[in-house]
From TrEMBL:
Any Gene Ontology biological process: base-excision repair
A Pfam family reported for this protein in Swiss-Prot or TrEMBL: Adenine_glyco
Highest taxon in the source lineage: Bacteria
Protein name: DNA-3-methyladenine glycosylase I
Gene3D superfamilies noted in UniProt: Hypothetical protein, domain 2
InterPro entries (UniProt xref): Adenine_glyco (IPR005019), DNA-3mA_glycosylase (IPR052891), DNA_glycosylase (IPR011257)
Molecular function GO labels: DNA-3-methyladenine glycosylase activity
Amino acid sequence: MSDFTFPAGFITGSDGVSRPPWAEQTELLRDYYDTEWGVAVTDEQGVFERLSLEAFQSGLSWVTVLRKRPAFREAFAGFDPDAVAAFDEADVERLMANEGIIRNHAKILATIDNARATVALRETGTDLAKLVWSFRPENQELPTSLETIPSTSPESLALSKTLKAAGFRWVGPTTMFALMEAIGLVPKAQRPFLEGQS
């Protein structure tokens, strides 16, 4: 990767690693960017967790979600789709009273509905992870600047439509593009090729 050039606008931190500005805001974001962002997630539970957290992030900062992620995992049974799909009104009340998570009633209900849709997908011969990964872009061109990094793509729009048709909610094309970036479906233009960094 010695010939890799980071897009214009990246910041080189005190550790010599180049990152986009959002990843240099806090130590938590730097660690997430360096170790998780853009790394392939291919299991159903892992994709369901990230889809859920991207929905909770909508309208908020990602660092807010990261700080609350341990509480989210505990509150949502480790994001086990089968467990969350069985949540009832008592669970909704429990979640709304949980100060450790983002207490948004609509997003909580959407997460439960999305767990049920995840379980239902299996009856079609696929699962959430396989479905999401089927929308991996064929064109993997890297942007040349932060300004040219898109917030949606034809694939994220198509994924959004497919998921909505399957009963998923809070899965708009921008949120799905963020998911696709986070779990490794699109170019790692905002993530350093760490093996080539010193």
